[in-house]
Amino acid sequence: MRVAVCKRAATPLRALLLAAVALLPLACATPGERFATVDSALTRDGPEAALSRAESLARGGGNAALDHLHAGMLLHMAGDFEASNERLEAAARRMDADDPFSLTEGLAAVTIAEGVGAFVGQPHERVALHVIRAFNFMAQQQWDAARVEARQIDLRLNALAGRSGFYRDDAFARYVTGLIYEELGEIDDARIAYRKAYRAYDEQRETTGVPVPRPLQQALLRLTADAAFADEHAALRTVFATTPEPAGRGEGGRAIVILGHGLAPRIREISVNAQHPQTGRLYRVAVPAYGDSRQPLRDARVTSGGYEVRAEVVQDIDRLARESLSERMPGILARAATRVAAKNQMVGQARDQNPVLGVLVNLFTFASERVDDRAWTTLPGQYLLAEVPVDDDPATIALELRGPGGRVWREQITDVRVEPGQTRFVFAHALSPHVPLHRPVAGEG
Amino acid sequence: MHRQIRNTATLVGAMVTLIALAACTTQVARVDSDEEIDLSGQWNATDSRLVSAQIIEEVMSHPWAERYHDEHGRAPVVIIGQVRNRSHEHINVETFINDVERELINAANVDIVAAGDAREELRAERTDQAEHAAEETRKAMGRELGADFMLQGTLNSIVDQEGRREVVFYQVDMHLTSLADNRRVWAGQKTIKKDVQRPRARF
After folding, report:
1. Which of A116, A30, A112 is nearest to A339 (CA)?
2. pLDDT tens string A361-377
3. Alpha-carbon gap, residue A156 to A77, rounded angstroms
């Protein structure tokens, strides 16, 4: 949204001039604006087409990490797990290298624009990187490698514990580490991870809107069933108001379906353009805001054989991103105010030297005032999870997906190999009712 | 005067061009493989080399092979099992496993048999020979040398971090187990501790 403001009773010529000049910033699209076409390719044609579009838009430089993140996520959706992990590793390396505070970028942020520095991602995006990498390894049944990512998640979250702000832990990431440790048979580590996940869900419920998922409740009850944890087990049974159920039922195993849906929200720009009535000098302030949620699902049901389970929200990335921006907003506004003063000073000095130079510098300072709209928008808006018993091998898992307005569409995930007593993780991504469910298939079986 | 200014400008221009070209060129220098180069603070070739040197020294100095020879009148047969990476980094453990394997092969008193993918490839080749090779050159199935011991291990790490400082402790444990009765005949360990201080600011 852009708002043009002119304080003095505008002559038609002046208003026309301001309107023309207000279009100047549009000449240079921000990374987020450029990436909008990738989003549409993704929701229209799927991850392969979106990847090809994203690669053609990749500019490298300070945005190299973001380019890698998008590619890594799209490759994950497309089922190319190895390539996905390579790109995500490249993103992690780049963000680690760019993480220390840059003196020049810091200066540029208060004199030129917010997004001129290298992209290092928000804390929840840095954690999500390891979660997606863990998914890639889990899908390939590479459990030792998945454990490495679980430990990376632990380290990153432990480092966040001392920070102020709402994002001091990540319940879903903790839950995923628990799933990995449990699959490896490292029950003590799994129990600790589940406890941390439970605590994080419980503490952040008001902020994230995500209650403790039922499968996590069951996992905690299962892993505290030993007599050594009798007190904890009894307390949890009371809190959860439920009884423990076996991980699988009957002769079969279980499938844990992790369903991403939609996309993380995109940052848009709200700008105010103004012209000084006496000097004619142009001013512009731009602040970021999130657009509408991009989540196509309101409900999802997962069916296997005679079992039907409702998939529960386990992470709301959309909400995390919005909270993260709200938290950063005071700093963004302070830098914007500093920039207005600094740019005004620059224009004044240039005009003192030469009026034409002053106009040119003013046009530059005006056009350069853009928001930093870089974000890992190919992440899903939400993750849902359903744990369903599976009796057949191979099995077919059916999904009934319900969108806004009660619109229902159905998908099937076929050839899911689950041996008796075993767990199979199935990853899928629902983008919209118009495109088929994207289910990474490599490594199955 | 003008000429002098022009010459200076040309010289400065040439220098700037040279610097720009140098900055744009990938530079590669050959260094000694024993030279310690730590870039990220993560597990690297130096750590791998230190581990293999320590493990080799320990496994070769222990009298388990001699004892076996004395008891059975032949060299023990060892198969290299899995070294599980339980650390917080993706570490290619094959480099030091290969070092250890090479030393064991070169030792006169130990026999090593192929394991894992290499063994599968050999079996596939024998299967192929059974169909395609001339009878007199064909290698029969079921003639493999059974291992007496398996070498296995784990690589663990503990990370303590505060702000931009990280102390990482790696521990590699290797052990040799008798396949006949699960008796551990040798165990070795190598630890590495690193203090990594990451920069707070960059230009």
Report:
1. A112
2. 999 999 889 999 999 99
3. 24
The pLDDT of residue A443 is 42
Q: Which of B43, B86, B154 to mutate to test the interface with A (most CBs of A within 10 A)?
A: B86
- The whole-angstrom distance between A342's CA and the closest CA on chain B is 21
Structural domain boundaries, residue B188: 42-197
User: Does any domain span residue B10?
Assistant: no
* Residue A27 falls inside a structural domain: yes
**Structural domain contains residue A231:** no
Residues of chain B with pLDDT under 70: 1-26
Give the strands of the sheet with A282-290, arranged side by side. A2-6, A267-275, A282-290
Name beta bridge partners: B173.
Answer: B154, B189
pLDDT of residue B11: 57
Asked if residue A143 is part of any domain, the answer here is yes
A25 pLDDT band (50/70/90 cuts)?
Answer: low
* A42 located within any domain: yes
Domain at A82, CATH number: 1.25.40.10
Query: What tens digit of pLDDT does each residue of A285-329 get?
Result: 999 999 888 888 889 999 998 899 999 999 999 999 999 999 999
Give the count of alpha carbons within 13 A of A226, CB side only. 6
pLDDT score of A64 more than 50: yes
Who contacts B66 (Cβ-Cβ below 8 Å, separation ≥6)?
Answer: B109
Please state the domain count of chain A.
1
Answer yes or no: is B73 within a domain: yes
- Is the Cα dihedral A135, A139, A140, A146 positive or negative? positive
Residues, chain B: 203
Instruction: Return the number of CB contacts < 8 Å for A and B.
Output: 40
**Residues of chain A with C-beta less than 8 angstroms from the C-beta of B158:** none
Of A96, A144, A155, the CB nearest to B84: A144
* Partner residues linked to B77 by β-bridges: B111
CB contacts, 8 Å: A99 with chain B? 198
Q: Residue A125: which pLDDT band, with cuts at 50, 70 and 90?
A: very high
Interface with A, mutate which of B86, B87, B90, B170 (most A CBs under 10 A): B90
Tens of pLDDT, residue by residue over A180-207, are: 999 999 999 999 999 999 999 999 999 8
Number of domains in chain B: 1
User: In CATH, what number is assigned to the domain containing residue B120?
Assistant: 3.40.50
User: A312: domain range?
Assistant: 2-212+246-430
Average pLDDT rounded to a whole number, residues A410-435: 87
Q: Do B88 and A152 touch (CB under 8 A)?
A: yes
B9 lies in some domain: no
**Nearest residue of chain A to residue B159 (CA atoms):** A155
Question: d(Cα A76, Cα A139) in Å, to the nearest integer?
Answer: 10
Residues of A in contact with B85 (CB under 8 A): 144-145, 148
